[in-house]
Specification:
The chain is built from six helices and four strands, in the order αααββααββα. By secondary structure, the chain is an alpha+beta fold. Strands 1-2-4-3 form a four-stranded antiparallel β-sheet. The longest helix is centred in the N-terminal third of the chain and has 20 residues. It starts with 8 loop residues before the first helix and ends with a helix. The model has no long low-confidence stretch (mean pLDDT 87).
Amino acid sequence: MTHLREISPSTRWAIASHVLTRLVLELGRTGGRPGISPDRERLFSLLGEEARRIADSNSMKRDNAADIVGTLGAVSVILFGRAFETRYIEGFPEEGVIRLAECAMFRDESAHGIPPAEVHSVCSAYVKAVIEALNPDFSVGISMARCRGDGFCEMVIARKERLRD
C-alpha cells in the first residue's frame, strides 16, 4: 500500500489540479442548453471568490491591469496546474495581455468527451468570474483560443470603459 508521504508534493499537486480541472469542466458544461443556469453562475462566482481569497491571503496585487494579469496567472496555476503557466505576459496599468501556448482545460485528459465549444464556454466563464472578483473595474476579452482552433489563447484585460469603446 502506498502512503501519502511516498507521493511527492509535485505529484499530489498534479493530481489535485487535474481533478479540479475535470470537475470544473463537467460542472460548468451547458449541455447545449441556451443561457446560463443559476447553478453554473454560482459555481463560477464561488471560483472567483476563492481566487480573491487566494490573492488576499498571499498579498497579490490587483490594482491595475498589469497586477491582475500576474495574479490571474498565479492563481490559475495554483488551481489548475502548470499548463496555465505563461511565458508571454504584457502588462500596463490600463491593459494587460496573456498568451498561453497550453491550456489545462483543453487537454485530452481533462476535456475527454467535452466538445471544444463547451471547453471555451467554461474557460471564458472562469476567467471572467475571476477578473470580476479580483477587481470589478476590469474585464477580459478573449481574442484567440486553442479550443476555437487558434494556435494559442490570448486574453486582454482592461478597464471596463476601455473594452466598451
